[in-house]
Amino acid sequence: MFPVAGWLRCSSAQQHSSMKPAAERSAVVIEEADSRPLPPGWTSYLSPEGLRYYVNSCSKEKTWQRPFLSAEAPQRPLTCQNSSPYANECHSSRKTSQSAETPGVSLRKPTMKKQPPGSVSPAKRQIKEVKETKITINCVTFPLPGEGPEQQLLKPNEWSYCDYFWTDKKDPQGTTSVAGFEVLLQKQLKGKQMQKEMAEFIHERIKIEEEYAKNLSKLSLSPLAAQEEGTLGEAWTQMKKSLHDEAEVHLKFSNKLHSEVEKPLLTFRGDNFKKDLKKYDHHIADLRKQLASRYASVEKARKALADRQKDLEVKTQQLEVKLSNKTEEDIKKARRKSTQAGDDLMRCVDLYNQTQSKWFEEMVTTSMELEKLEVERIEWIQQHLRQYTTLRHETDMFNQSTVEPVDQLLQNVDPAKDRELWVKENKTGEVRPVDMDI
Q1: How far is CA 133 from CA 127, 136, 141, in A?
Q2: What are phi and psi of 170, to 5 degrees?
Q3: Sign of CA dihedral 225, 229, 235, 237
Q4: Are residues 120 and 128 in contact, defined by beta-carbon separation less than 8 angstroms?
Q5: 33-91, pLDDT tens digit by residue?
Q6: Cβ-count burial of 407 within 10 angstroms (0-12 exposed, 13-18 middle, 19+ buried)?
Q7: How many angstroms separate the CA atoms of 132 and 128, rounded?
Q8: Count of other CB atoms within 10 angstroms of residue 384
Q9: Phi, psi of 46 (to 5 degrees)
Q10: What is the Cβ-side half-sphere exposure of residue 237, based on CA atoms within 13 angstroms?
Q11: How many CB atoms within 10 Å of residue 160?
Q12: How far is Cα 163 from Cα 204, in angstroms, rounded to an integer?
């Protein structure tokens, strides 16, 4: 990626060079009339603004003043300017500007050899050596592991959705990837499905209770052993009646299961819930599309800037080989286009960062809403399943109450009393037979 900071430094140096005093520029023009030969190692160049400067091929020293022999006055060094062949490699700072304007102090550049067009300059090689600290994945920019300050969780120790779903997740086959937000939406849809299946389970339980109640009621009317008598007969009759009472209890239990458990599970977050999830999905997806579009613009602007810089470098190297007004004019145009390309890149990067910030904010807000919905779902199901256990305990208590009279009568069963009652009712005579007389 193109180092924007380096481009800004060169732009700053250009502004610095445009502030050169008029007296200094006039002094350079006067020097053009000097026909004395240059000292060994010195070469003169003409800038696109028509200003002449001098470069020492041995020391790489540059100066606006014409160099003289050792017995004459020393030269004033050349400040970093956009009109020199090295303009694309200048680095501007307050410290170097002050030292460059101090008479008698040389502003030295790194050793620079003429390079073929399109080759990488030493300055660019230095930029390429800068270690990358960020990486862009699916149009989203992340810090590289171990680079920069450690990020703190938005909600520490809570395992919140807003902290763990920023990157995309590859499917098990590794052919496609699913956005982190899509994983959260799938969790919501899965929760809705689980809630529906729980309601179906309770419905089957209700059917069992209804069938059980129906069978108990039918069995309570059975005529079997209806002729049993005595205290045992009373206990048997009460047991049959208890079946009818138990059937009523289970029927009420099934009705309450339907109204207090099954129906709430079915109606909790109806059909509009999926529509709301689609709204969330479309909203975040639109932001991702915008982010992808901004990223494409950044890459396009970055390529355009690289092309402009390469063109400027080529034209600058051509000026070193052949001095001509046409080449100098081409350099001016190339420099303007490079500056404009840099401005475009900065604008695209700014728009990209704004879009990513908006996506980030919406991701945090929406994921927190989904987290809240999930908590509500779990608490809702917990509440109604506890209602199921409550009803079940109540049913057991009612069943116990129907069995208690039967148990009491069974404890009172007295075989002797039953025999007495039966004998009294069915006796045929108290006189016993005797022996016959002769």
Answers
A1: 14, 11, 10
A2: -75, 145
A3: positive
A4: yes
A5: 456 778 887 877 766 566 777 778 777 677 888 887 654 444 444 443 333 333 333 33
A6: middle
A7: 9
A8: 20
A9: -115, 125
A10: 10
A11: 16
A12: 40
Amino acid identity, position 169: K
Burial 34-65 (b: 16+ CB within 10 A, else e): eeeeeeeebeebbbbeebebbbbeeeebbbbb
Whether residue 24 is predicted with pLDDT greater than 90 in this model: the reply is no
Q: Answer yes or no: pTM beyond 0.85.
A: no
Q: Token pair of 437, please?
A: 């007389």
For the record, the structure tokens of 160 come out as: 């919140």
Q: How many residues does the chain have?
A: 438
Phi first, then psi, for residue 44 (nearest 5°) are -100, 150
What gap in Å lies between CA 7 and CA 151, rounded to an integer? 29
CA-CA-CA-CA dihedral for 287, 291, 140, 120, to nearest 10? 180
CB-based burial, 295-334: b 16+ in 10 Å, e otherwise? bebbbebbebbbebbbbbbbbbbbbbeeeeeebbebbbeb
For residue 58, give every residue at least 6 positions away whose Cβ sits within 8 Å of its Cβ, in sequence order, or none.
Answer: 41
Cα–Cα distance between 267 and 199 in angstroms, integer? 10
Residue environment code for 71-85, b if the CB has 16+ CB neighbours within 10 A, otherwise e: eeeebbbbbbbbbbb
Q: What does DSSP assign to residue 77?
A: B
- Strand-by-strand arrangement of the 42-46 sheet: 42-46, 52-56, 62-63
Count the alpha carbons within 13 Å of 190 in the hemisphere toward its beta carbon.
Answer: 6
pLDDT > 70: percent of the chain: 75
The 8-class DSSP code of residue 69 comes to -
Neighbours of 152 (CB within 10 A): 7
Read off the pLDDT of each residue in 197-202 and give the average, rounded to a whole number.
96
The H or E element spanning position 177 is strand 177-178
Sign of CA dihedral 123, 18, 305, 5: positive
Angle (CA) 143-348-331 rounded to 5° is 115
Q: Kindly state the tokens that stand for 177.
A: 């990837």
pLDDT at 127 over 80: no
The 3-state secondary structure of 214-277, one letter per residue: HHHHHHHCCCCCCCCCHHHHHHHHHHHHHHHHHHHHHHHHHHHHHHHHHHHHHHCCCCHHHHHH
Residue ranges in 101-179 assigned as alpha helix (H): 122-128, 161-164
